[in-house]
Write a structure and sequence with these properties.
The complex is a heterodimer of chains A (about 350) and B (about 270).
Chain A: E1 3-12, E2 15-25, E3 30-34, H1 41-49, E4 56-61, E5 64-65, E6 76-79, H2 91-100, H3 106-119, H4 135-147, E7 153-157, H5 165-182, E8 185-190, H6 193-199, E9 202-207, E10 210-215, H7 217-222, H8 227-232, E11 237-244, E12 247-250, E13 253-254, E14 268-274, E15 279-282, E16 291-299, E17 305-311, E18 316-322, H9 324-330, E19 337-342, E20 346-347
Chain B: H1 12-39, H2 43-50, H3 53-86, H4 92-98, H5 101-104, H6 107-118, H7 125-128, H8 139-163, H9 167-175, H10 180-209, H11 214-217, H12 228-237, H13 241-269
Classes of the chains: A alpha+beta (about 350), B mainly alpha (about 270).
Chain lengths: ~350, ~270
């Protein structure tokens, strides 16, 4: 079932939380609402669930306008950041709750709950109370409870935000499997771009009550619509460059901004963004188009080597990611002189420049 | 090896010592005195003192009135606590403060005020008496004042519990398709039940021991509207000290037993809390 939230406006007092937001989740997709805190992503999710009512705009499930329908009748599974399990009920009763209120037969309830307990790999926990479970276990039970009544739509509000990094990793995979297996349309809210890229089919980047960009993970990452998206989706180096007759210069280094990007004619200033992996290091100034710097710090832990370089002429610290092979070739050490050359750079229309 | 004191606050011995002294001087000694005085009676004398028709009538009146009053307090107090926590209304702070009034008001004053209001010529009694509702000088009046002194205990125990109630679990219940009644019945009520039980126990214990207001609102007729505490005082006034303490001992033992049972009940009602 597809979900469309159209032209949603929501104010709390005189604070505008959502300013004409339109988001669509195609049937069967797993969509991430990604944004910093205060971007309105949780409010949008709560409006889709029916827990909040929009001031303007409509919510549609498939072709039905459900804007005025009670949350109770939307048949939506909802997972809260802090689990919201019923403390006084056993794990079994928690999962059974949505079935009990639907007056399903006891035998069917038992069958369904045990099936879900198997799915979340906690069959031995049926008679425990939530207070005895770890955070990861609680969230798995909360997920099982949410999908027990077989909802067509699953909404998750920062579902892994309160969990440890390794548990989070495991639950992400698990959410993806669960989503695929039960043929739901799912929307989840997160402020963690890695999480969004890890599981989502579609990413909606939000900021200050607006949608900045939406698209597939690859689209959004490779073609950020503006400086905000560029900065929010990962580490980035920004350079205050000068525009000179269609060329983008930082000092006397020309930034390779690519042909398809908008460059103001005439002269002026602009911010240019370069991802750490789009910079290269060299021992010599062979290409000529490079900045002189000094190695400040090397972090070799991980599949890439992260190098921090101080560009002395501009007092600017840049982050450079290089492959371990390249690192070995260069045999870098802290304090050494080095040359930094940009391989690719992005520039945005000044309206968006921050 | 010198011992390292790892407690955050010093003064464990001082505070424990004070606690022991306090409990001894103010609680244990008077209670023990009660039992010792009673022990002077032979078993036959004791039986004769505590099991007279008058005494039995007093026990059953006290227990049943206190129980009924505690039930009413539990319901009324829960409603008031709910309204005070969940809703905003004008003068809410003043209503909240008024809940404490029965704690501070001398209960004799309460008894006098209530009896003045509910006598057949009183402000309320004028309308209620023709309807057959007689609250002054009756058992109904006893329950009325017991509720008055008991419900604040329920309100004050329940308020923090209601405030800390997880709103998200109510939303979760709604999202799972539960009606408002189902949400209340299966999600909210079980979470606040331990608080209601505690409040009930406090109100019940308070009502069992109440004297000051009841002596004014009840007609105190032996065997009819005389509660146990009044019986004890009446025995004292008749200089039957040993009998008075014997009755007091029975009351004490019953109170302890009751509190123990309620304690169990309360622990059972929060068995899910780790």
């Amino acid at each position: 079932m597809s979900i469309i939230a159209k032209n949603i406006v929501k104010q709390f007092g005189d604070k505008v939380i959502l300013n004409d937001v339109t988001v669509e989740a195609p049937s069967g997709a797993l969509v991430a609402l990604l944004g910093p805190s205060g971007s309105g992503k949780t409010t949008l999710l709560r409006i889709i669930s029916g827990l909040e009512v929009p001031d303007q705009g409509t919510v549609q499930f498939h072709a039905d306008d459900i804007t005025r329908r009670s949350a109770r009748d939307r048949n939506v599974g909802f997972v809260f950041q802090h689990y919201a399990l019923f403390r006084h009920m056993t794990v079994f009763e928690n999962i059974a709750f949505g079935l009990r209120v639907r007056k399903i037969s006891e035998a069917k309830i038992r069958e369904r709950v045990h099936e879900l307990l198997e799915l979340v790999k906690l069959p031995e926990m049926a008679d425990r109370y939530p207070a005895k479970l770890s955070g990861g276990q609680k969230q798995r039970i909360a997920l099982a409870r949410a999908i027990a009544p077989k909802p067509a739509v699953l909404l998750l509000d920062e579902p892994f935000g309160a969990l440890d990094a390794n548990v989070r990793e495991e639950l992400r995979q698990w959410l993806r499997r669960c989503h695929d297996e039960y043929h739901m349309t799912s929307i989840f809210v997160t402020h963690d771009q890695e999480e969004a890229f890890e599981v989502a089919d579609k990413i909606v980047v939000m900021n200050k009550g607006r949608v900045e960009q939406e698209g597939s993970p690859a689209e959004v990452f490779e073609h950020p619509a503006n400086a905000f998206v560029m900065k929010f989706l990962g580490k980035v180096n920004s350079f205050q460059a000068v525009l000179q007759d269609g060329r983008v210069l930082f000092g006397n280094v020309e930034m390779p901004v690519g042909a398809n990007q908008v460059i103001q004619t005439g002269n002026g200033k602009a911010d240019v963004y370069v991802r750490p992996h789009e910079l290269d290091l060299g021992r010599t100034a062979e290409s000529g188009n490079c900045l002189r710097g000094k190695v400040m710090h090397i972090n070799p832990a991980g599949s890439i080597v992260k190098v921090r370089v101080l560009v002395e002429d501009f007092g600017l610290v840049v982050n450079v990611d290089i492959s371990p092979e390249r690192h070995r070739q260069l045999a870098l050490a802290s304090g050494e002189s080095i040359f930094v050359s940009p391989k690719n750079a992005k520039i945005f229309e000044p309206d968006y420049a921050i | 090896m010198p011992q390292v004191n790892q407690r955050v606050l010093p003064g464990f011995r001082l505070s424990l010592g004070f606690t022991m002294l306090y409990l001894t001087v103010l609680v244990a000694v008077p209670l023990a005195a009660c039992f010792i005085t009673t022990a002077r009676l032979t078993p036959a004398q004791f039986g004769a003192a505590v099991w007279t028709p008058r005494a039995v009538a007093a026990y059953s009146l006290t227990a049943s009135a206190a129980f009924l009053a505690a039930c009413i307090s539990a319901i009324l107090g829960s409603l008031i606590a709910w309204a005070l926590v969940r809703y905003d209304f004008p003068l809410k702070r003043y209503f909240d403060a008024m809940v404490d009034l029965p704690f501070a008001l001398p209960t004799a004053v309460a008894g006098l005020v209530f009896s003045t209001l509910y006598v057949p010529s009183g402000l309320f009694g004028r309308f209620l008496t023709p309807l057959g509702i007689e609250l002054a000088y009756s058992r109904g009046g006893i329950i009325l004042v017991m509720v008055f002194i008991g419900f604040p205990f329920v309100v004050r125990t329940l308020q923090p519990i209601l405030e800390s109630l997880d709103r998200e679990s109510e939303e979760a219940s709604l999202m799972l398709g539960a009606s408002r009644w189902q949400t209340f019945r299966h999600v909210i009520f079980p979470s606040i039940l331990p608080g209601i039980v505690t409040g009930f126990a406090l109100a019940f214990a308070r009502a069992l021991g109440e004297y000051g207001s009841i002596v004014f609102i009840s007609s105190n007729i032996p065997g009819q509207s005389e509660i146990a505490a009044v019986l004890v005082v009446n025995k004292l006034e008749e200089f039957q000290y040993a009998e008075a303490t014997a009755v007091a001992t029975v009351l004490l033992t019953a109170s302890f037993a009751m509190l123990a049972i309620i304690n169990r009940l309360e622990r059972w009602s929060r068995r899910w809390d780790s």
